[in-house]
Amino acid sequence: MDTTDGSSHTLGSVEKSIAVLETLWKLDGAGVTRIAQSLDFSKSTVHDHLSTLERNGFVVSNGGTYELGLRFLNFGEYVKRAQPLYAVAKPAVTELAEQTGERVFCMVEQHGLATVICLAEGERSVQTDLRVGTHSYMHCSAAGKAILAHLDRDRTEAILDRWGLKKFTGETITERDHLYDELETGRDRGWFVNREEYRPGVTAFGVPLRSNGEVTGAISLSGPAMRLAGDWEDRELLTQIRSTANVIEVDLSFQ
Amino acid sequence: MDTTDGSSHTLGSVEKSIAVLETLWKLDGAGVTRIAQSLDFSKSTVHDHLSTLERNGFVVSNGGTYELGLRFLNFGEYVKRAQPLYAVAKPAVTELAEQTGERVFCMVEQHGLATVICLAEGERSVQTDLRVGTHSYMHCSAAGKAILAHLDRDRTEAILDRWGLKKFTGETITERDHLYDELETGRDRGWFVNREEYRPGVTAFGVPLRSNGEVTGAISLSGPAMRLAGDWEDRELLTQIRSTANVIEVDLSFQ
DNA sequence: CTGATCGTTCGTCATCGTCGAACAGTTTAT
DNA sequence: ATAAACTGTTCGACGATGACGAACGATCAG
């Protein structure tokens, strides 16, 4: 999958270490042998990588089994706070969740994926698998569409080339033209929607966040499809979401 | 500093990548040239590492300058939630902060450092530089002492050998015997204290958390030294802290 | 327009990452 | 109790590959 590069100066040993870390993540911790056969590396190679990573705090060993280390938490919190949006969006998102009772997210694009940087739950918010730090595809999330709609066409194309339009439910948009239409209508009316396109029964509305004319992220509000189905109540809900986005944009411009 | 190892099979290129990541962290993002001269690597080497790390989401480039990527947030949140203590301690810590109005931490030991895995602020809690994910030395924090006091003597020695007893204030304990005495008295009475040993004006009380007879972490409560100076009110405060710790220990044993 | 600086590309050489075999513990099954 | 089948770890040697300096094109300051 990566041997076709040819002249690229990518460091194989570093990528091996990353593969070990990914495996440790997928398997929720594992031993040398398990990782070695999962990646088709030799045991000694895996051991070398693990001990190097452990010496640096990215891995921790508990009597034969290895896990990801707390140094990731250190870097992770730093990266979260380094996002200009975080400090501003956090209180606004929390307030919107309290007002509406639903779950509210703030997401940022990086590497073609939308990542949750902060989240707040309302009183009646439903369960979800989206946590802070979760990466999600942009074609099937309300916030992702909001961001995608405001990128250069080339960039959008590149993102769709890289990640495809994976189908999660019967409602997921899997055709490019369909998605482009959706992005255009969303761009025109100022908000975006994900109607059970990622999880059955879950609908979300998304609004982009602009700073200096550039879209730097988006907020989205998600809840049960039943509750968010009507067009009448949506008007009220949407003005609340757009109002929150507006507050964030203004706050962002003053710091 | 590491060339004296001799026979160790540590992967130099991986450690170089880690050094690049650390530099990116220290400098809050930087360009190739800046990193290269900061680490005394060649520009092309730094570039190779950065592009490899970027291809994997650990670094992101914004027009010439590089920053740490959001993938660290993904891993960081995962590691946080992977700690058995996290889910149990979070609500208990929050409640204690509300009750007392002070700032409360839950910390876990790894690689000889105490790392904050969750934290809650009370209404009158003071400012601090401790965030979730912050690593701190164990000899000068209340939670760190609580954990240190219950490790094997060999382990404690190894930790002090590795990290030393760095002096932060005039109150910091910098001699081993002094620390061992302090750990013993704390172990006997069941709680530990840090009286302005890390930051002037900040005092903290710490209590260990046991699971199956083993200490897996600690909680601590910190506030202004003035407020936490008396011995009378401390009695009340300490029973609240110990009671919270007790709740966590019981909850932990039932999952 | 010019000089200096940036990030990037490229090809070479010597380093050092990889592997298999052997090691020492630990658990499982007989 | 004993052996067989694991585990993680150590070690040395070979050859892939990571590091470097030089040259590149792009950008910015004066």
Describe this structure in words.
By secondary structure, chain A is α+β, with helices and mostly antiparallel strands. Chain A has two domains: 12-70, Winged helix-like DNA-binding domain superfamily/Winged helix DNA-binding domain (Arc Repressor Mutant, subunit A); 79-253, Beta-Lactamase, CATH 3.30.450.40. The first copy, chain A, is built from nine helices and eight strands. Chain A has helices at 12-26, 32-39, 43-55, 71-82, 84-100, 142-148, 153-163, 176-189, 232-253; strands at residues 59-62, 65-68, 103-110, 113-120, 135-136, 192-195, 202-211, 214-224. In chain A, the strands form two sheets. Chain A has a six-stranded antiparallel beta sheet with strand order 5-4-3-8-7-6, with helices on both faces. Chain A has a two-stranded antiparallel sheet with strand order 1-2. In chain A, a hairpin with a 2-residue loop joins β7 and β8. In chain A, α5 runs antiparallel to α9. The longest helix of chain A is centred in the C-terminal third of the chain and has 22 residues, at 232-253. The termini of chain A are far apart. In chain A, 42% of the residues are buried. The interface between A and B is large, with 49 and 49 residues. Chain A binds a DNA duplex (30 and 30 nucleotides) through residues 7, 9, 11-14, 16, 31-33, 41-45, 47-48, 51, 61, 64.
